[in-house]
Amino acid sequence: MWKRKFIFPWVLLTLVGIICSIYLLKPPLDDWCTGYVSSNPATTSIHPLKVVVEPLLGRHRVYGIFMLSIEKCPPGEPVLLRVNNAGNYCKNAGFDGLFQELEGLEAPSGYYLSKHYMRTRTTLWLITQGVLDQLRQPRNWTLTYVPKN
Predict the structure, then answer these.
(1) pLDDT digit string (tens) for 114-133?
(2) Would you say residue 7 lies in a domain?
(3) For 2-33, how does the pLDDT look when each residue is reduced to its tens digit (9 = 90+)?
(4) HSE-up of 120 (CA within 13 Å, CB side)?
(5) Number of domains in the chain
(6) Least crowded by CB within 10 Å, which of 34, 51, 74, 94?
């Protein structure tokens, strides 16, 4: 008899959990970063040197490594990470530090390497939709910034 009392709450909690999971897995809205990097036509866009997509190994395992000029994009400057089919991410250049060497890549003098992450939960959602191969291709990742003169 007591088991019947708990059927409705369990069904309700399950439905709420499923709805919340779907909400959290969705890619960020494209207009989230509107105005973060000005719509100045003088923006520069670059592709990563390396892309790592390993969401099943834990958090912070989906990222691109970009090479940026210290003069044109100093650390702390706003940048916009765009990943096709995965949304836009507002970031800051060099957030993790100035790396001259990172994961087997080396930056020449006057440049630094910067790691920019994509949400793991969004990656998992996109994998269920069959776009894993697209995420692994560097041409689908773009970092945009306004160069300093």
Answers:
(1) 998 888 888 888 888 888 88
(2) no
(3) 666 777 778 888 888 777 666 665 655 555 56
(4) 8
(5) 1
(6) 34
